[in-house]
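Appendix C reproduces, verbatim, an entry submitted by the partner laboratory led by Prof. M.T., so that reviewers can inspect both the input and the predicted structure.
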Amino acid sequence: MRVRIQNDDVPYPLSILRGRLRLSGLRDTEVAGIIAGSLANQPSSKFWTEEELVNSIEKALEEYPPLVCENFRLLTAYEQARGLSDSNRSLLLVLEGASATGKSMLAMELLQDLAATRFISTDSVRQIMRGIYTKQSHPELYCHTYQAHKYRKSGDPSLDPVIRGFIAQSELVIPHVQDLAGRLLEEGAIAVVEGVHVYPGSLASLGANVIEVVISPSSKTHRAMFLNKYATGKLRTVSGNQSLRIKEYEDTRIIQDYIVACASKCGAPIVEMENYETARMEISRLVIERVRYLVEAHE
């Protein structure tokens, strides 16, 4: 699709509108119907402006609950306000939780919904750091978070050794993630951050433009996701030894329970993860709440 911007016709990514509609509370089938209907109404003689396209979407939303249209208008207003020179309307969505909680897959969906142009995975940051620090100097970097306690520990000595190993690895990674996140906020970008190393509160000091969310599957769901990660993800760094994986899951769950406790302590939202669609829609609701706050704060 193309739209008219000033005097030029330029390609327009429909994923922007799809994401905005999903964030507004619609399901994929509803979004597809609205987009198709709006495109069918476009005159063949000329390209629409983005405003005309948005107006067509809003008209179609009259058939849905008023809150959906209200959310869509809010997101449109937020996007328009981001272009103002005196406004910093950046947004950083941070998905937190232990290994195999569903963070990465949710991040992929929300990247599209937010039309985010930046993405940070703390696993990638850790991998870059492995190119800086040797295995001899920082062996805790060269393993999973649930294995780090074998090499180094940090934090309160009364904590479980697995947690202290997790903290030791996170203490190396978090400062670099904070620097990257701070730079993205300065740019005014919309971004998604995901990873086990950013536990609740670690990025909150960057301001109201940061939304920290802990992804929390039940122990039964988490166990199933963790034990099947080798079969579903095909990662060579994940052991296919079932008895070993069970022990690794138990250690991972200790980390997850610690992260959830940190979230409760600092007031970070905790989203249950029993299926991706429900979790995504709950995160969308949290995004809408924060966008509303940001828009109202700058009015």
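The domain at 91-297 is CATH 3.40.50.300 (Rossmann fold). Additional entries are available on request from the coordinating office.
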